[in-house]
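Regression test case RT-17, inverse folding.

Input:
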């Protein structure tokens, strides 16, 4: 009877699996702060895609990890067709065609030597700043390169103002009207991203508080989401997930497009570490956290637990 009256149900197809492809490795490399998550080679990435599909997960979100010497001030590896990420996208598309939905992370931080999501410049007072508007044409180039490589969805995660309009225009001009945009609309400057920095070998010093949102703010998320929808977002996202369920619920209530939430690296790491210590039941907490994210209003959930949780749902 409990099942009959349950108000929320998780499905394997709700999950999106974030994955990493790295240059310069010849075997998958486990991320120490995210046990069970790996930087992949092309071969191991394709195996991961197979496992995802077998478990009923339909979408992979790919991040690229270049070598340090491939990074530069503007992140130009991001639009190099042979760059780590574009190579991975191409391999996935070649292997899986339209069976697996291939999503690309569209942000410069993995590719810049300073680790910021945009290019830097000096303001009129001599301070170094992330230059919002100078970043937009780079995002356009990156998105077009990703779509050419095979991405079905591009996902701008850099929180630059105007990024959705710029990318939509860039894709449309390149004749890629069919490529969708998942907008990281309400993304907070969060310490929960900690383990991700290791996952992508980030060069960042400092923080992203000038372009990501202050955890103190709620209303701002609704404005950011509205702007993204006006500019042509096909999906909007709230990130991180569990600490921001109030934001997620509010975005879900106002959004005319599908709403995603990202259960980030730190959320995964906390559940996994406490589970390893025997302090919590890892699997039960995993399923409960995902159920809560869905109950709060997410229709798609980006989670490093995607395959494990999907298998569990299928018994
Ligand atoms: C940056 C980006 C980040 C994550 C996804 N894209 C890190 C950041 O903004 O500092 C975090 C994902 C995670 O923690 O799992 N473009």
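Golden output:
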């Amino acid at each position: 009877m409990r099942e009959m009256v349950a108000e929320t149900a998780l499905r394997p197809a709700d999950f999106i699996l974030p994955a990493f492809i790295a240059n310069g490795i010849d075997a998958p490399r486990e991320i120490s702060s995210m046990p069970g998550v790996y930087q992949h080679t092309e071969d191991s990435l394709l195996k991961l895609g197979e496992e995802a599909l077998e478990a009923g997960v339909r979408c992979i979100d790919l991040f690229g990890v270049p070598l340090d010497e491939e990074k530069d001030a503007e992140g130009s590896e991001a639009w190099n067709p042979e760059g780590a990420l574009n190579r991975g996208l191409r391999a996935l598309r070649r292997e899986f065609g339209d069976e697996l939905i291939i999503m690309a992370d569209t942000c410069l931080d993995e590719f810049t030597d300073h680790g910021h999501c945009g290019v830097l410049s000096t303001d009129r007072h001599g301070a170094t700043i992330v230059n919002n508007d100078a970043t937009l044409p780079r995002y356009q180039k990156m998105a077009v390169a990703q779509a050419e490589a095979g991405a079905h969805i591009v996902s701008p995660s850099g929180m630059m103002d105007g990024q959705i309009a710029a990318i939509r225009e860039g894709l449309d001009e390149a004749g890629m009207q069919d490529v969708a945009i998942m907008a990281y609309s309400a993304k907070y400057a969060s310490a929960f991203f900690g383990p991700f920095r290791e996952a992508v070998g980030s060069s960042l010093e400092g923080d992203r508080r000038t372009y990501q949102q202050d955890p103190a703010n709620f209303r701002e998320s609704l404005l950011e989401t509205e702007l993204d929808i006006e500019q042509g977002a096909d999906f909007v996202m709230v990130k991180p997930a569990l600490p921001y369920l109030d934001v997620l619920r509010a975005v879900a209530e106002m959004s005319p497009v599908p709403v995603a939430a990202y259960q980030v690296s730190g959320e995964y790491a906390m559940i996994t570490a406490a589970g390893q210590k025997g302090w919590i039941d890892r699997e039960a907490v995993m399923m409960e956290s995902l159920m809560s994210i869905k109950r709060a209003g997410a229709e798609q959930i980006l989670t490093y637990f995607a395959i494990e949780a999907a298998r569990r749902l299928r018994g």
